[in-house]
């Protein structure tokens, strides 16, 4: 399991963020459920858009990620329902939406960008899950987020590895550095609230 200091993120989430969002656990679980749902659909969409990708293990990797994320969705939903909550009909994720605006659509680099953004979302989610696990006084939630931390760490590495195969490693790494900087800025612009990808005062992007 990767240590937090090994993550390439350019900003770090403070414990105060985790304590704040855990004060509204039901709303946090609803947001989390939609996050897992989108992650599963993203993997399937990648497979649908590029069904015959030449990379070895492409189909197995995308279906495996989709399976994992669907299992996480089922876990979050069970927690939510058991605690008397329910899913909303509509959900917005301005953080993920802003990241996806960086995709260079219609170009040969579209798949590269999609894979790198998937890696960004996974690694930030991984960091947030660890923050939640470390401060939660709810034992069930603490254990749940600790387990998810390990899984999402693996997903982020898979997407980054694939990105370095669909493009030259030097090209992929240069784009990855650009996106890491943009991710820190975008997260810093998010509103505070009980969401996995919400903002927090003082979380700002480093200087370019």
From TrEMBL:
One annotated GO biological process: tRNA modification
Domain of life the protein comes from: Bacteria
InterPro entries: Ferritin-like (IPR012347), Ferritin-like_SF (IPR009078), tRNA-Hydrxlase_MiaE (IPR010386)
One Pfam family per UniProt: MiaE
MF (Gene Ontology): tRNA 2-(methylsulfanyl)-N(6)-isopentenyladenosine(37) hydroxylase activity
The protein's name: tRNA 2-methylthio-N6-isopentenyl adenosine(37) hydroxylase MiaE
Origin species: Paludibaculum fermentans
